[in-house]
Design brief:
heterotrimer, A mainly alpha (349), B alpha/beta (251), C mainly alpha (397), A: mainly alpha, B: 251 residues, alpha/beta, Rossmann fold, 38% helix, globular
Chain lengths: 349, 251, 397
């Protein structure tokens, strides 16, 4: 039982990331009718916002401390981050320590801007083109963004730690009445899950309770009718694109302590997020979230050693966790072609 | 002898009764019109003939065989061709290519892997296609992109494509919808000619009474998903129930 | 000739000449000259021209004719390579069994993937094929390590059985004794030209593949595929079943990809999972649209163009750039070099991505259409404002 709970918990963080990216993909697809192959790149850009903030905050100047000697006997060069010099060593160190959460503030305007520019500068011109063209141009954009990041940040993963307060793990099992040390769960993963839940709830209530959201939902159902009502739907769709970009970006920012960001993380997540969207049902927001968490948890169960060993020993399939999502997706598509919560008529001739 | 036999067909969409207990019989080599106000279930009924919809109850027999549960392409291969309300043609292809496809389908069936034959060598099929286009007065447009045709030409091309398969039953879904009077009259003349020259049964759904009364030999009036009356045009014109329910003051 | 009309025969002869004379055409610069770095006539690159040409021709049969955009064709390439290397390991270094097997296995694999993916069309189809390709990559990279040798890649070891390898035959890939990597170099003055067995083997297969693709384009089957792209509804109501047609096109293009994969392994007896990655699938899409989707010769041009510039751009480094722009004032030189260095060397993929966007945005018809527009522009100016509207409605060559 405790092992099962642990697997569910382990699946939550990846599931959250899938859900957030899939949510944005579905929003863009539902409102604009465009499949955005560059959406994974937005997730990646978010992650590199965190890297950038951390680097900016750690910018240092060098002073020579005559009182200390290094091992060669020369005066010791001391690097002092500017923030420590400005705010004092303690506050400065805390700011650097909290660079990942702080990056959220920095990432929101950046991601919104990236989203607006992408929509106005590129995607807008492709509404009337064929779907194949939309796919191809966003695919090209994804490559460009990925290669630019690779050029400036290198090909290696960049460790971006969580604040000290959230490092390490806590005993979740003891908390809910199991034996101590049975369910150990890292703090930051819990933070990530809570953060994702807040964003998902935010997006849903925004769509449900605001006039803006109402128009967007109406637009998702029938774009032309809403256009006829004289509502400037295009501008709202631009804003929607920005929001979807910000959601993906924030998912990326907060994901950095879990997995060190690298330039190809976007594409890795994108393909799986597409599978999530398809399994959830094209055009269904709740479907995307549900499928995101389900597949994340499923993946975690597949990497659970008894299950993994079973597949390895009896079916000769080591690392079943690498393909389990695809296998399940195939089964679901064969039995329920519209996905778990797909509506009739979406993407059908 | 009837070629299409519809018995007790009902179809619900959610709570909405689109068709209830429709009985209809189309006699071979006649033109049978199905008329009725908007929402009377005409298109739903037509979709049940061609495999797009499956009725909840009842049967649809074409020439003694049930069409229910068959794919549209199978039903076409049985001998039913359909003309759509807005012309459905292959817009990326030329007029002659459009015309070749149904003839190939007629000869080769629903699928054939003729990947190493050459279209240009199929003299017989090309000749047939040219003949039909001649009949449609489109012989001068063989190599035009069909997307560039006028609406009337597209309609004629589509009718030609259906005729080239020599179907036993031709279904027409408001063939003159959205057409100018002159185009409508041309289409009526074309359909009259087809009716006179070929052994063919035509079932037509139409709003335009002018079209209906110039072509039809039998008329079924559909209202709220049920056939109100079925009779000859002359009797329909004077039928009190029809005048009241549908034709109103327009006659 | 060969069942082609005159226009197609001319096109075929043109491509045959291009392929046979490639060693001359691709080495226009003397070996010792500074321009020699722009030569492309060495065996390895010429082989890739031909192999990726096959890959793109096959891809175009699916995408160009039916409009179904597959993002997973690299999977078939990879499967082809693995099949061929396994034949080397089990039988012998003769490439014939390997190439035959690679086509068959890729065809079966395509049948399986196509059967599932073609249940949906449009975007759904693209996503499904992408997911299948990523799954195949994961399978090759880790799950099926016993078959694929995981991240190391599959290669031939000395303790492999090679049951049919006879004592006298060469210990490298060969065609009944003709060694693929052998090259005859012809020196003419300052020039030198390489005639490589492997290249000519690939080129001949490419010509056959090209010929078959012309036949498919001009066949009733090809007409049906174009009808699928144009209007599936009309097709269904004309008594035609679309699924078998699209599936057949998918399998054919998968077999072309398998052949290309088999040839890659025949030139260099290795097979790795990276050959199946999404970037490789994206590359063949780019080759096809760059050359011209739905045109006959487009994919060959696109493949040649991409592979040539990949080779050139990857070789250029900062020092080369500085030597080129040395004539500029120093500040300007540095600025120019700073900008350009993004696009060369390891930055080739950035160029590729940009090229992708530019072609889709500005030249959706690809090089062939670009060439036609240019030709039309030139003739229009040449014919002195004579009002000429070309009514060509045949699919472009």
């Amino acid at each position: 039982m405790d092992a099962l709970i642990l697997q569910v918990l382990n699946g939550l963080d990846k599931g959250s990331a899938y859900a957030l990216i899939a949510l944005g993909l579905t929003l863009i697809f539902g409102t604009l009718g465009v499949v955005n192959f560059a959406h994974g790149a937005l997730f990646m850009i978010g992650a590199f916002c965190a890297v950038t903030v951390q680097r900016l905050l750690s910018l240092s100047f060098v002073t020579v401390d005559e009182t200390q000697k290094d091992f060669l006997g020369k005066p010791l060069k001391v690097e002092t981050p500017y923030v420590e010099a400005w705010f004092g060593p303690e506050v400065g160190a805390a700011i650097i320590d909290w660079s990942v959460p702080l990056a959220i503030i920095f990432a929101i305007p950046i991601m919104l801007a990236v989203g607006f520019i992408m929509e106005r500068g590129l995607i807008k011109h492709f509404y009337k083109r064929e779907h194949a063209d939309q796919i191809l141009v966003t695919f090209g954009l994804a490559i460009v963004l990925q290669e630019l990041v690779k050029h400036y940040y290198g090909a290696n993963p960049i460790p971006t730690p969580a604040p000290d307060a959230f490092k390490g793990s806590f005993d979740f099992g003891a908390l809910i009445g199991f034996d101590p040390n049975t369910i150990i769960y890292p703090y930051w993963r819990l933070v990530y899950f809570a953060f994702s839940a807040v964003i998902i709830a935010g997006v849903f209530s925004f769509l449900r309770f605001t006039t803006f959201g109402m128009v967007v939902r109406a637009g998702m159902a029938d774009r032309e009718t809403v256009g006829l009502l004289g509502i400037n739907i295009d501008r709202r769709f631009t804003i929607m694109f920005g929001i979807a970009a910000a959601v993906a970006g924030l998912a990326g920012v907060m994901y950095t302590p879990i997995n060190s960001p690298n330039y190809h993380m976007g594409m890795d997540f994108l393909v799986l997020s597409f599978v999530v969207v398809v399994v959830g049902g094209m055009g269904s927001l709740p479907g995307a979230v549900l499928a995101g968490f389900l597949l994340g948890i499923l993946e975690s169960f597949a990497s659970f050693s008894p299950i993994k060993n079973f597949f390895e020993n009896w079916l000769f399939l080591p690392s079943i966790d690498q393909i389990i999502i695809y296998l399940v997706a195939i089964v679901i598509l064969l039995t329920r072609p519209r996905g778990l919560m797909g509506r009739k008529g979406v993407m059908e001739e | 002898m009837s070629i299409l036999e519809v018995k007790n067909v009902s179809k619900n969409f959610g709570g909405l009764k689109a068709l209830s207990n429709v009985n209809l019989s189309v006699v071979e080599n006649t033109v049978h019109a199905i008329i009725g106000p908007n929402g009377a279930g005409k298109s739903t009924l037509l979709n049940c003939f061609v495999g797009k919809l499956i009725p909840d109850t009842g049967s649809v027999m074409f020439d003694g065989q049930s069409v229910l549960g068959r794919h549209p392409f199978e039903i076409n291969q049985m001998g039913i061709s359909r003309v759509f309300q807005t012309p459905e043609i292959f817009g990326d292809l030329t007029v002659i290519e459009n015309m070749l496809i149904p003839i190939f389908a007629k000869r080769d069936g629903s699928f054939r892997m003729h990947a190493l034959e050459t279209v240009a060598n199929e003299a017989e099929i090309i000749e047939q296609a040219e003949q039909v286009l001649e009949e449609m007065n489109m012989a001068d447009k063989l190599h035009m992109h069909s997307a560039a045709l006028s609406r009337g030409d597209k309609r004629r091309l589509e009718i030609g494509m259906c005729l080239s398969q020599e179907p036993r039953l031709l279904l027409l879904d408001e063939p003159t919808a959205g057409m100018a009077r002159a185009d409508t009259n041309n289409t009526i003349d074309l359909l009259k000619r087809i009716k006179d020259e070929r052994d063919i049964t035509i079932a037509i759904i139409e709003h335009d009474m002018h079209v209906v009364f110039s072509l039809a030999e039998r008329i079924t009036v559909l209202a709220q998903g049920t056939p109100l009356v079925e009779d000859t045009p002359e009797n329909i014109k004077i039928h009190p129930k029809v005048r009241e329910a549908y034709l109103g003051e327009s006659v | 000739m060969l069942g082609l009309d005159r226009k197609d025969t001319r096109l075929l002869i043109f491509v045959v000449l291009l392929a046979l004379c490639a060693p001359f055409l691709l080495n226009p610069f003397p070996t010792e000259s500074a321009m020699a770095q722009f030569n492309a006539g060495y065996p390895d690159l010429m082989q890739r021209f031909a192999i990726y040409g096959i890959f793109a021709i096959g891809f175009n049969i699916l995408f160009g004719l039916t409009g179904y955009l597959s993002f997973g064709h690299a999977a078939f390439l990879g499967v082809g390579s693995y099949s061929t290397v396994w034949m080397f390991k089990l039988l012998s270094y003769n490439i014939v069994p390997g190439i035959i097997l690679s086509v068959i296995v890729a065809g079966l694999f395509a049948l399986l993937i196509g059967f599932i993916s073609l249940r949906r069309s449009g975007i759904y189809f693209s996503i499904l094929t992408l997911a299948f390709a990523q799954m195949s990559f994961a399978l090759a990279y880790s799950v099926l390590t016993p078959i694929t040798n995981g991240e190391t890649g599959l290669q031939v070891y000395t303790d492999d059985p090679q049951y049919l390898q006879s004592v006298g035959s060469p210990n490298v890939p060969n065609l009944f004794g003709i060694v693929m990597r052998d090259t005859y170099t012809l020196d003419v003055g300052a020039w030198s030209f390489d005639f490589n067995n492997g290249y000519y083997f690939c080129a001949i297969l490419m010509l056959i593949a090209f010929y078959l693709s012309i036949r498919i384009y001009r066949s009733p089957f090809g007409l049906m595929l174009r009808a699928v792209k144009s209007n599936q509804q009309r097709m269904n109501y004309t008594g035609l079943s679309t699924r078998p047609y699209t599936l057949a096109a998918f399998v054919i293009s998968g077999m072309y990809a398998g052949l290309a994969g088999g040839l890659l392994a025949s030139m260099d007896p290795l097979a790795g999972a990276e050959r199946m990655q999404w970037t490789a699938s994206g590359e063949v899409v780019l080759m096809t649209i760059l050359g011209g989707v739905g045109t006959l010769i487009g994919p060959i041009l696109g493949a040649g163009f991409i592979k040539y510039f990949e080779n050139i751009f990857s070789k250029i480094n900062d020092a080369t750039l500085h030597s080129w722009f040395g004539f500029l004032p120093e500040g300007l030189e540095n600025a120019v070099v700073w900008i350009l260095e993004h696009f060369v060397g390891a930055g080739w993929h950035l160029t590729l991505g940009l090229l992708f966007m530019l072609v889709v945005i500005f030249l959706p018809g690809g090089l062939v259409e670009g060439g036609q527009k240019l030709a039309a522009f030139v003739t229009r100016r040449g014919s002195d404002k004579k009002d000429k509207t070309s009514g060509s409605t045949e699919p472009a060559e």
